[in-house]
User: Which sequence fits this backbone?
């Protein structure tokens, strides 16, 4: 437990030292989401701006009026609002994929990483990260597919009993277990990505193997850390939504914006905290068993060359 | 033309006929019982046409039932009858039946029949059919198809008698039948160890307006039957908890591990029952103006915590119906919380309704209240005012939807009568508008239920549109007058089967207004209403002066407002114009022309214009264009865009969280 706390604290310290990454990613996240919402926003403005009926959406949230707005022909088909949001979500994912190597290098560094080193790390690792993503997608897809398939079968069996709560709780418990297992897969690939960046490892398969080995040997510590941070993220979400409901007046657009964005910023920080924890773990692992100079040579030399 | 002599002859012939028919009935010893043990009345309340005496044994393992039915029919048609049609509703659940074909054409009540599951099968086989005094007709029964050409539909069977039943005479049918229940379809059948027996026995058609009215079972339609007396014995395993229409008369344990529970119902036109080993019973009483009503609420164990919610809304609803429309005369009301996952929720039978809830139902989610209210309302608009649900679905579902809005709004508030949860709200009006808007111009109210364009149109028009046009009618005749009209309609037509004109004429009579202009469009037509504020303009009177300095309160403007009737429903409407100096002007437009323009010369500019400022018109298809402000207010759209942005951010973060 204490080890877990140390790891989580070490991760937190890394995140604190490198807050700028979170800010940049948050701004990207906000910008992309803003673009993704522009079609929705334009359609809503065209219907609501000059209508007194829109008050029912400002001073409260009347679900019926909202649905009426969505059903108006001038609003357009719903996919015209949802597709841009999904597209920009994918863009954010790809951006994260491209820039994450720089972040990982920054997290491993004890000084502020110069901009050129950051981008060089990104460029050097972009194709490796793409291959890692493919590996991850295959493994997580297979594991998730099998587990969710089994869960569905379990839920269907539970559905046949006369205990009405059983299917729901089966689904809930099963989903939590699957998420835990997928978190293990995520840790594995987080470590593989760290290995690729810090060791400048071109052989992605070797990195995947190394990541697996490290994850397997330290499963309790790593999983405990990740779950602890994910629990904080959940808490952020729940408290944020509660505050939004409890203290922000329905008509306060600015208040809703601020609390929503604080929530999104903190949520993003949680994932960076996990990544920082993985890096802290990796660095510690590398330092402990190996001679110090070798380690330094191994993960600093290639990057700055 | 009718001379005194002819009157005398008519009376003589009539008295002879009555005498002869009385002898016909008396000779056979037949009569419809005049019992009143199930109602809070010393005398029968309806003109009783039928008496069903049934003895049914339910096989819980096979989900089947074997029964004998003795039906006594009183011929009050005014003419001899030699043909009798019977509904065999459970035969609708055969893959070639009209009900399934229509369901296959488009999903109905959640069942889209992607593939036919043997568990969907339902059937009703007549094993023997005897007409007392005339012999066995088992082999002479003929399936008929009054509504379509589907020869494979077996939901209506007809028997032709060699000896006609004279007017005012009686006939008795003795029928043995076997039911196979489907896994719940159309609110009847089994689910796990639960069963709901609805539309489960051969039921004679209704002689209505000079002909038999006995339609096939359709995907969207419901039922129609004559009032009478029901005595039903149900034999089920002893572990079952049973509930049914009417009052429980006795319950006897049998040596073979079964029990026989007997029920009696007076002045009802259908009989349904349910059995499950899991029900928990919550008893309560409502004091109606005709006497006490025993509430028997049969809850699923996981919903036991919601039993009081069910009882409370039932009593609140009954109190309002009693006060607004008239008394509930029956001694019992059974509310069934059906097996979760079954398709037996939200259904009405006389003195017996099914509710609908879930184990997780926060108090602000008013689904259980809504369903109980709605189904209880059917005790009036279907149960007592027994309209023809095949042909005038709007008269039971729609009128009931209207009274649901009145009752729910009065209890929970107009904007929060369906959802009031975590800042999210919606009222009955919103729900009805959503039903209606998608299908506004597809079908009129006055249409046979099975001939609607599709399931959405049936729902949107019969439920949504009816509620909205009746709510709007209040703005034409006044809310109190409308309530008085509903009260008169109920008292006049309870225990009868009124037509649409009976209803409409009652409203006209009570309001003292000719409302044909409204009914022709709203009930018989497909006209749609959509007013819009087309444009507004405020131009300085001295616009031509180069040195004009506009100053609030000093500069004089020519203000113009254009109101446009976009669609074809013609209706008068009020319009409110607000000026930037605080002045308000109200106009009343008869709505006859396509548009109207109002002009005002004032030392003020128009701030906003609103059509129907008191929000009395509920079925305007687009409420957003009913008003227009001079200055745009982007706050509502920004608020929604904020939400959308946050959802987009969250989605993007989750994608990146898991994949990178």
Assistant:
């Amino acid at each position: 437990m204490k080890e877990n706390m140390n790891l989580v604290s070490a991760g937190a310290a890394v995140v604190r030292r490198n807050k700028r990454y979170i800010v940049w990613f948050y701004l990207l996240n906000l910008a992309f989401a803003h673009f993704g919402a522009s079609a929705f926003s334009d359609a809503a403005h065209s219907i609501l701006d000059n209508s007194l009926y829109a008050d029912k959406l400002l001073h409260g949230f009347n679900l019926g009026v909202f649905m009426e707005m969505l059903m108006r022909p001038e609003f357009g088909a719903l996919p015209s609002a949802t597709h841009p949001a999904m597209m920009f979500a994918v863009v954010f994912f790809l951006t994260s994929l491209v820039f994450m190597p720089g972040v990982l290098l920054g997290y491993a560094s004890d000084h502020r990483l110069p901009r050129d080193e950051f981008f060089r790390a990104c460029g050097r690792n972009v194709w490796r990260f793409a291959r890692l993503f493919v590996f991850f997608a295959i493994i997580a897809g297979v594991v998730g597919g099998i587990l969710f398939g089994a869960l569905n079968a379990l839920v269907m069996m539970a559905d046949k009993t006369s205990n009405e709560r059983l299917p729901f709780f089966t689904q809930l418990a099963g989903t939590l277990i699957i998420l835990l297992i997928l978190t293990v897969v995520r840790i594995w690939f987080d470590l593989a990505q760290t290995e690729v960046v810090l060791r400048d490892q071109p052989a992605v398969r070797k990195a995947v193997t190394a990541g697996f080995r490290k994850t397997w040997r330290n499963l309790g510590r790593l999983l405990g850390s990740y779950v602890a941070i994910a629990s904080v993220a959940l808490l952020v979400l729940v408290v944020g939504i509660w505050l939004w409901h409890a203290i922000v007046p329905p008509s306060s657009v600015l208040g809703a914006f601020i609390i929503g964005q604080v929530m999104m910023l903190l949520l993003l920080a949680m994932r960076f905290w996990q990544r920082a924890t993985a890096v802290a773990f990796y660095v510690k692992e590398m330092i402990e068993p190996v001679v110090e100079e070798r380690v330094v040579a191994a993960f600093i030399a290639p990057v700055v060359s | 033309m009718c001379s005194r002599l002819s009157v005398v002859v008519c009376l003589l012939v009539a008295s002879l006929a009555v005498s002869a028919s009385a002898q016909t009935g008396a000779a056979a010893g037949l009569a419809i019982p005049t019992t009143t043990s199930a109602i809070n009345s010393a005398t029968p309340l309806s003109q009783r046409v039928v008496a069903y005496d049934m003895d049914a044994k339910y096989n819980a393992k096979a989900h089947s039932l074997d029964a004998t039915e003795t039906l006594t029919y009183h011929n009050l048609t005014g003419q001899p009858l030699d043909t009798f049609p019977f509904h065999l509703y459970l035969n609708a659940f055969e893959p070639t039946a009209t009900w399934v074909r229509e369901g296959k054409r488009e999903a109905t009540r959640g069942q889209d029949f992607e593939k036919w599951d043997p568990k969907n099968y339902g059937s009703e086989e007549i094993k023997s059919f005897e007409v007392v005094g005339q012999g066995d007709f088992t082999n002479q029964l003929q399936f008929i198809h009054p509504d379509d050409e589907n020869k494979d539909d077996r939901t209506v069977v007809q028997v032709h008698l060699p000896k006609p039943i004279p007017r005012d005479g009686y006939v008795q049918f003795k029928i043995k039948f076997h039911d196979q229940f489907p896994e719940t379809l159309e609110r009847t059948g089994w689910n796990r160890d639960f069963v709901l027996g609805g539309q489960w026995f051969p039921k004679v058609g209704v002689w209505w307006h000079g002909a038999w009215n006995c339609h096939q079972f359709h995907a969207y339609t419901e039922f129609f039957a004559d009032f009478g007396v029901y005595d039903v014995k149900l034999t089920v395993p002893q572990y079952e908890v049973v509930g049914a229409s009417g009052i429980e008369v006795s319950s006897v344990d049998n040596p073979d591990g079964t029990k026989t529970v007997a029920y009696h119902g007076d002045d009802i036109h259908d009989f349904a029952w349910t059995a499950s080993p899991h029900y928990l019973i919550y008893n309560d009483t409502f004091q109606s103006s005709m006497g006490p009503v025993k509430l028997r609420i049969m809850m699923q164990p996981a919903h036991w915590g919601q039993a009081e919610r069910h009882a409370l809304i039932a009593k609140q609803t009954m109190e309002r119906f009693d006060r607004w429309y008239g008394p509930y005369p029956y001694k019992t009301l059974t509310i069934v919380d059906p097996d979760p996952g079954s398709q037996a929720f939200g259904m009405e039978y006389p003195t017996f309704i099914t509710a609908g809830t879930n184990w997780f139902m926060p108090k602000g989610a008013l689904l259980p209240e809504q369903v109980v209210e709605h189904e209880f309302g059917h005790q009036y608009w279907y149960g007592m005012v027994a309209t023809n649900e095949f042909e005038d679905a709007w008269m039971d579902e729609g009128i009931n939807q209207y009274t649901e809005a009145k009752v729910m709004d009065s209890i929970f508030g107009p904007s929060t009568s369906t959802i009031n949860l975590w800042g999210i709200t919606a009222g009955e009006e919103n729900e009805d508008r959503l039903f209606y808007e998608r299908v506004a111009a597809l079908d009129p109210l006055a249409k046979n239920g099975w001939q609607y364009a599709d399931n959405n149109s049936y729902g949107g028009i019969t439920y949504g549109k009816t509620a909205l046009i009746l709510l709007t009618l209040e703005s034409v005749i006044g809310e109190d007058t409308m309530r008085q009209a509903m009260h008169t309609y109920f008292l006049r037509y309870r225990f009868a089967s009124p037509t649409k004109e009976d209803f409409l004429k009652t409203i006209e009579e009570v309001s003292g207004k000719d409302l044909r202009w409204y009914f022709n469009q709203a009930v018989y037509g497909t006209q749609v209403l959509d007013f819009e504020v087309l444009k507004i303009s405020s131009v300085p009177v001295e616009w031509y002066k180069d040195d004009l300095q506009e100053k609030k309160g000093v500069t004089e403007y020519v203000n113009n407002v254009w109101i446009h009737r976009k669609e074809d429903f013609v209706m008068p409407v009020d319009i409110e114009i607000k000026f930037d100096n605080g002045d308000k002007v109200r106009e009343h437009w008869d709505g006859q022309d396509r548009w109207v323009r109002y002009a005002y010369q004032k030392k003020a500019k128009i701030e906003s214009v609103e059509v129907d400022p008191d929000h009395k018109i509920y079925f305007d298809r687009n409420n957003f264009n009913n008003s227009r402000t001079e200055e745009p207010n982007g706050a509502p759209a920004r608020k929604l865009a904020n939400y959308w942005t946050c959802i987009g951010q969250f989605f993007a973060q989750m994608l990146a969280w898991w994949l990178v």
Notes: Confidence is low (pLDDT under 50) at residues 290-305 of chain A.
